[in-house]
Amino acid sequence: MIHLVIGELSKQYDGKLKCFKLSTDDSPSIATQYGIQSIPTIMIFINFEKKDAVIGAVPKTTLTASVEKFL
């Protein structure tokens, strides 16, 4: 499950990365604002600006590569 991978990344990059979970059912306006059409969608923000998005349940290596681009 993707939330387990996100939890691992949060620990791996402690102090460099903050992870947040958002339910599109509970916050449909935010999902619309960011054009989320598929779940899961993982977004990377720097200073509140969206820099990247990974769509779908991808392997940890894919998410790690996305995070590493911005560290």
From TrEMBL:
One Pfam family of this chain: Thioredoxin
InterPro entries assigned: Thioredoxin-like_sf (IPR036249), Thioredoxin_domain (IPR013766)
MF (Gene Ontology): protein-disulfide reductase activity
Domain Thioredoxin: 5-68
Gene3D superfamilies referenced in this protein's UniProt entry, alphabetically: Glutaredoxin
GO CC terms: cytoplasm
Name of the protein: Thioredoxin m-type
Gene source species: Quercus suber (Cork oak)
Lineage start: Eukaryota, Viridiplantae, Streptophyta, Embryophyta, Tracheophyta
This protein's encoding gene: TRXM_1
